Amino acid sequence: MRQVCPRPERPSLAPSPPISEPSAQQATDTGYVAVGEGHASARSDSVSVSDVASAPVIPLETILHTRRHLAILGEPGAGKSTTLQFIGLSYALATAQQPVERLSITRPAVPVYLRLPVSASTITQQTVREAMVAEVRDRLQCSAAEAEAVLRSWQEWPGVIILLDGLDEVPVALRVQVRERIKTLMRSGIGRVIITSRPSVLLHLGGLDEYTLKPFEHFDRDVLPYLKGWLRVLKPDLQAQVVDNVAQDVMTKLRASPALRSLIGNPLLLRLIVQYFVTTGDIAWNRADLYRQWVTEAWARARWRGAAATEEPHYLIALHTLAWHLHAGRDNTETALQTVLRTSGLAADDRAAADLLHRLQAQTGLLLRLSTGQDGLAHVRYVFAHQTLREYLVALRLQQAWQRGKHRTWRFLQPRLHLPEWREPLALLVGLLTESEAQHLLRQILHAKSSEERLLCRDLLLTANLAVESGYIHSVWESLAPKLARALRREHLSKETAAVLARVGKPAVPMLAQALNDPSVEVRRAVVQALGLVGDAAVPVLAQALNDAQPEVRWAAVASLVAVGNAAVDTLVQALGDDDAEVRRVIGQALLEIGDAAMPALVKALADKRANVREAAARALGESGYAAAVSALVQSLRDENPWVRQAVAEALGAIGDAAAVVALAQALNDENVWVRQATARALGRIGGAAAMLPLTVALNDENPWVRQAVAEALGTIGDAAAVLPLTRALSDEHAWVRRSAARALGQIGDGAAVPALAKALSDGDVQVRQQVVEALGCIGDSAAAAALVKALGDTNAEVRWTTMKAFEQIGSRNVATLLRAISDGKWQFPWQDAQAWKIGNQAIEAIGSVFNGGDTGKRMIATLALGETGNSAALPALERALRDTDLWVRRAALEALAKIGDQAVIVPALERALRDTDQWVRQTAAEMLVKIDDTAAVLPALERALRDADQWVRRTAAEALGKIGDASAVEALQRALADTESMGAAGRSRGARKDRRCVGGGGAAKGIGRYRSMGAAGRSGGARKDWRCVGSGGAAKGIGRYRSMGAAGRSRGVGEDRRCKSGSITDTVTE
């Protein structure tokens, strides 16, 4: 299951593997290689690396079930676009009524996917809606008017979900306007909006819930398989054992590297790390090394595709130039980029520039060519395959500038230090420099004296972060440490400073430990949250934090220990003694997630001096099913604390090992009521003959709650030896014990219990009688059926209903008993009971016999019951009912006929009913005709009904024709317009049909289904093919047969008025 965390707590959402790219080659070019059978993709049901250890994890499915606008945030390579595409694909499949894997879509909607960097100019010049129309037009190859119409139809049904990808990639000059247009869109109600972005760019965009991607949660369970999968793909000659060792070696080195540790949760960069390791035999120094490898591979690919070896410098300079141009937010059209190449001296003329641009895109794969439409014209635009790659090329250009002139480059950088769009190039620049050059630049940043530095410490925190990311933190740590220590003590800076120190790792642990003595709760909590990211070295400090006086600090410590994993098991077990029961529960769940590594510590905790630790350990062992703990748990059944003994009994029952039966049998004599109750249930779960005798004896326990638990246990075991003692329990003074005894006898299913159960049908408690009836139904022999006849006359409707269900369960084996009950006049149940009549032809004959002299109420109920059988054998009786003297019986017969569905009989019967003397019968007949699929068969009858003397009959017929909606129905409605009383209904239905026909043709909705997310997967060939039928009629084909777009809804509105006057026969009888 995909998972997310709310952004305020710095959480996450897990992407799927790469969904679908335009081609396999493009997947390779942009950083994903072909994945073989052995590849393990980023899982989404794991416990992964997170910026804040205490962030709650939320499944992606859960946040999609809300109706709020969403922002999915993540750093470069975290899988934001892949996740958004997967969401779109899932919605497209759900809307097309096709199977959806890994997500449950409860409210289908048509996804419209926009790449914001591509659509930004349209959005700023017009609106997001206009960009959506343009996207629909381009995808479906239709006119703008047709695209507008189909988008409007999607808004009406099934709804639209708007997927806006890459807010952080929008050119800086357009970003403010784009954000304002998105705000307007969210307020407009057009559809739900989901945006992807880096966290820093989402500023000033309110009105949505923010979540951060969480691709991995657990190192061993998720990250290691992912590493192994890529190792097998990139180096297939490695044997399995070697792959395991290499993956573990890579993981160890990553955890030890401050510069790379934070990349463990990033699928793209983790793949690049593996590729770098396969190529060089070691891990990279920092991210800049990874991107350098990426560009090197791109050049190798270009060589293989025909580029000359001498062209490498030329290609690289051209890529630098284009990256710089695009990073500045300038025009990315083909013409503009050709001009850039020509004016930079990289191409002699426009033709040469066009050729160079084409070769850069086709041979390196680092550029993507996008065709877009605007103002009715086609435009070709170029973007880099990945934004972070563009930023690396910008950093390369900055490196060259730094080497040519440090002072001039610093003057350029200084005003941009804290701009989000320059954060990544700046980090990569520091990583590209030599250590001495990096120290020089870091010192300048530290002393940049940016605005409000004394209050905000932005230069300090930026310097520390850049030093960590570049791998040069060891060079500047001594100068940074005192400043960071002071910043950590400032409450408003504590969280961000602690996060930086967590990235530093082990050298920062003493400083963080000292801060745990800070008087501010916020500071201590921030420190504890940060320690969860440090790893094993933080465990002793976190153990101290478990004693903090403030529960929120202890909570954070628990979450951080959970994030550390196996190394924190002993400390987590000790934390089971926390005074907060919820904290203990969460720790227990965390230990279960850790798995087998935590079990020995839990067994050991059964001897802890603190009772709440022993109790929590027992519960955790029970949930784990750890069979090796049975012996220790049996010993703990003699624990001095009753709550521990109760938890131990429950744990033994959950594990289910028969070796515990003897000890549990003894525990049935425990002095504590709740221990005896838990023990009885545990024996019931374990079962077996050895448990029967002690349980049978315990059925005489002095406490009713224990007796109830014993009865339930005996029923669970299901041994007939328990019948006699359970029949005695039917006379227990407490109703809940009698109910459990009856239920247990039903579970056992032995006919020997029938006499006692029959006697219990006179019990004064309604729920006991109901349970007795169910038990007799479970036994199901002729004696049980005979006993059930008495319950047909019970004064309580629920008991009678349960009795009918019991007869249904028994089936035709004992229908004779039911027939006698009917003939004896014991059939006294209300309408709802009729739904239980699904027990064969004999029962249908029995119900039909009611028409021989039964009173009106019984005839009406019998008629409805015949419909509920769904059996064509009921048709003769229903035809008799259509001639009944009572109009309610005749109306019930019409509804019953419609449920059986035999068209050859139903249509003539409904036509006759349209000539009935009662207007309500005629109206009901018109309602039932529309449920028949054969338009040709029902059209003449409905057209006659349009001429009925009663206006409500005419109105119902008009609505029925509106729902049918084909050309012949429209003609009939047009002819009916001469009738002034039915004009309103007919006009509305015709207008609705008219709307539907103008939206699309024979394949419009099929196009929606094929086109698979309006951009989610990017393929639209099938949609284009279908959309060419626009305007040709038959638009109702496809997704959900959406019928008449607004016609059905408007017709339903008319129907609501009508139903207030006539109503369903079922509703009437119920009332």
TrEMBL record:
Keywords: Lyase, Repeat. The keyword Transcription does not apply. Signal peptide: none annotated. One of its GO terms (molecular function) is lyase activity. Residues 68-200 form the NACHT domain. Residues 1-29, 1046-1071 are annotated as: Disordered. InterPro entries: AAA+_ATPase (IPR003593), ARM-like (IPR011989), ARM-type_fold (IPR016024), Armadillo (IPR000225), HEAT (IPR000357), HEAT_type_2 (IPR021133), NACHT_NTPase (IPR007111), P-loop_NTPase (IPR027417). Catalyzes the hydroxylation of the N(6)-(4-aminobutyl)-L-lysine intermediate produced by deoxyhypusine synthase/DHPS on a critical lysine of the eukaryotic translation initiation factor 5A/eIF-5A. This is the second step of the post-translational modification of that lysine into an unusual amino acid residue named hypusine. Hypusination is unique to mature eIF-5A factor and is essential for its function. This is PBS lyase HEAT domain protein repeat-containing protein.
